[in-house]
Amino acid sequence: KDTHSNMIAVVDYAHNYISTKSVLDFVEERYGKFNPRITLITGSTGDKAVDRRKEIVEAAQNRIEQFIFTTEDTDTEDVMHICEDMQSYVTNPNVSSRIIIDRAEAIECAYNDAASSEQKNGRLNILLAIGKGDERWIKNKRKHVPYEGDSFVIKRLFGL
Description:
By secondary structure, the protein is of the alpha/beta class. Helix content is 39%, strand content 21%. It has helices spanning 17-31, 51-60, 79-88, 103-121, 150-158, and strands spanning 7-12, 37-42, 66-69, 96-99, 125-130, 137-140, 143-146.
């Protein structure tokens, strides 16, 4: 929880339909009474389990307000292709989506957007970053590339 705003962040390893649905069930159970504005920061693996891309979107799109598609263990597959593929499955006209390749930047953008939204309407904002959990690397071109880590980006933004 950000001590300076009406914002909460949840970091999870969710990476398919069931795990995405489960984390959204948790968020709804815990915070649903506040009618939160949820931004989902997600990507999907490259070179395997292509069906997960559609599954993640289908599990979330009627329960959130915004997707931010980003890098997540793309390996040898082009990250933009993965993000565009995921974005193509968004069919709910009330859900916005955008692509921000750099994962830390995607979380920062979600944070800034939530802060702006909160100033306008006072709603609880939930940043839900899924797929990486506490991992401090991203698999790219068959190598583990150092990454700050979702929870560490959130802590930095929240001043914790």
